Amino acid sequence: FILQLHSNSDKGDGSVKYILTGEGAGTIFIIDDTTGDIHSTKSLDREQKTHYVLHAQAIDRRTNKPLEPESEFIIKVQDINDNAPKFTDGPYIVTVPEMSEMGTSVLQVTATDADDPTYGNSARVVYSILQGQPYFSVDPKTGVIRTALHNMDREAREHYSVVIQAKDMAGQVGGLSGSTTVNITLTDVNDNPPRFPQKHYQLYVPESAQVGSAVGKIKANDADTGSNADMKYTIINGDGSGVFSISTDKETREGILSLKKPLNYEKKKSYTLNIEGANTHLDFRFSHLGPFKDVTMLKVIVGDVDEPPLFTMPSYVMEVYENAKIGTPVGTVTAHDPDAANSLVRYFIDHNTEEDRYFTIDASTGTIKTAKIFDREETPWYNITVAASEIDNPGLVSHVPVGVRILDVNDNPPELARDYDVVVCENTKPGQVIQTITATDKDNSANGARFHFSLDEGLSLNPNFTLRNNEDNTASILTRRRRYSRTTQDTYYLPVLISDGGVPPLSSSSTLTIRVCACERDGRVRTCHAEAFLSSAGLSTGALIAILLCIVILLAIVVLFITLRRSKKEPLIISEEDVRENVVTYDDEGGGEEDTEAFDITALRNPSAAEELKYRRDVRPEVKPLSRHHPSSSLDSIDVQEFIKQRLAEADLDPSVPPYDSLQTYAYEGHRSEAGSISSLDSATTHSDQDYNYLGDWGPEFKKLAELYGEVEPERTT
Q1: Matching CATH number, 415-527, of 3.40.50.150, 2.60.40.10, 3.80.30.20, 2.60.40.60
Q2: CATH number of the domain at 200-303, please?
Q3: Using one digit for the tens of pLDDT, what is the confidence trace for 138-192?
Q4: Main-chain dihedrals φ then ψ at residue 568, nearest 5 degrees
Q5: Class for the domain spanning 3-76
């Protein structure tokens, strides 16, 4: 039961009816329409809805008319402590540096209570620590977690699990509570210096260890982690600081000991090193815990190893003259056994390359000798490899490179630097330089750098050319007379003697070919002898014959082609029996319609006249007087079809016709008109009174036409 509604109009006789509307009416709240009692049908939760707004009205049950205005009333849900505090963000993971001061804040936790904070203590929360003491504490009101001890050491304990409880009703008995877990991890700080586990170490290193190789490792321990444990190793003193070096492996934090210089057991059997390991990242808050470094002593014991022979030099350079006899000593290599046993050494050459086969070596003394005669101009330098091994232990071998320089001797005479093409102009003057020549020598500068040029003294004085030694390893060719003639002599030969400055001096003779050419005034060559040009162009006799043969073949092909074309055209000339239209081309201008004698088509109109009008088109037409009257009886008797068949049979059976198709056209226009023809084409068979003498005045273009028409009248008269 919640409440009862009552109207002043209600007499208790049941005539008044109560109606309830609004939030939850009929579902959460129901009303007795007779008594007005309001009841709830289910439990109410203030955390879901704090109040409800309802409307009530009294009406007449019989008429359903309202007896009073509608009334509004509010039902408020009163809170009770039915919700426990909750940590919405838990569980928590948090870190705090080790060695923190007591009371250092770690984390603030907050619990929420859904109850009404304005009514009673249902939502008043108090925090407490259930687990994690005595290391941590929590503020009851704010929920701030703090450290509760001084200098908490990560190396002693790193992880802590703290349980925090939140209780409502201000922590009183009967209050509801909730809890959460806070996982706290102590982070590292550099509060621990590095320490070597031992103060003295001993390391064995064989003397055969290679320079630059790692020979040992050493490590100092550091309880810290991460960058706080980083360290650097150094050799601070000791007699081995110049022989060994140390570096730090950043991954393993170990000191790597390496060899800087080769070890020799026979010279020094042990070394002492003082090695320091120090942190690289210091925290000055904990400097009082230092120093953050440690020192240890390392003794290196050098182990004796049977070593291969050792040469007295890392490499050798020897010299020998070219052309030296086989077996000539070149030089000597020396090696000894560095071990205390001092075993005897045997020498040999590894014949791995071709150059190694050019030399031999004495196995006992190490003397290298030649095995062939060398030519410096062919190969001036040889590289060989000499090996040495102990007689007692042949497996131990050492090698040394030996370079052999071949020294020069003057064994090559000088010669002209190139083949000179010397040209002298016909109009040259005496004493004129026409060519400067130089020489080369395969020997080096000590035996061939100085050249002397001269003419062959055994020959008589050359009247045409002379030579001048320029004293700079060049010589000039000069003319000795004024003019030269190609017709008299087109080529001269000048022997030149060249000697070098070696010991002993060598000389050679070369012949210069001098061509006589016609030149311009400025000295440019205009033309030379044909043979000279051909030779300078590099054309051999065989090449010239081939070119001429090609030209002859081309000419023969052209002549053959022209002949074939002419032979094909000749059958096209109309025979005497051919009565087709003939077209003769002249390079002269015609006379228009007055030109009536160049052509007659009467044969086409009257086949009976074909035999009398057979003209050749390649000669001047002969115009014969024809009768102007033709009996009509003869025209009527001609059968044109028979005439065409006759001509067709003649063309098919004639053995002299061309081998290709020949088109011969025949046509018949019918009988002559009574009115006669007005065309000038038929004028060739009639007499004309026109005078064609004026054609001779038209110039040479109409000369042929004037000759043809000028002779027509005399012929007709005749």
Answers
A1: 2.60.40.60
A2: 2.60.40.60
A3: 999 999 999 999 889 998 999 999 999 999 887 778 788 899 999 999 999 988 8
A4: -75, -30
A5: mainly beta
Q: Which CATH architecture has domain 86-187?
A: Sandwich (2.60)
Contact between 588 and 704 under an 8 Å Cβ cutoff? The reply is: yes
Q: What is the pTM of this model?
A: 0.43
Q: Which of 29, 91, 72, 23 is nearest to 51 (CA)?
A: 23
d(CA 176, CA 455): 135
Q: How many angstroms separate the first and last alpha carbons of the chain?
A: 171
Q: Which of 239, 103, 220, 121 is nearest to 169 (CA)?
A: 121
How many whole angstroms separate alpha carbon 409 and alpha carbon 503? 8
Please provide residue 166's backbone torsions phi and psi, each rounded to the nearest 5 degrees.
-120, 125
The whole-angstrom separation of Cα 658 and Cα 18 is 142
Calpha distance 517→536 (Å, rounded):
13
Instruction: Retrieve residue 272's tokens.
Output: 């002492």
- Residue pair 542/550 in contact (Cβ under 8 Å)? The answer is no
Are 491 and 516 in contact by the 8 Å Cβ rule? The answer is yes
41-91 tens-digit pLDDT? 988 888 788 889 999 999 988 888 988 888 898 988 887 878 889 998 879
Task: With beta carbons less than 8 A apart as the criterion, state whether 511 and 419 touch.
Answer: no
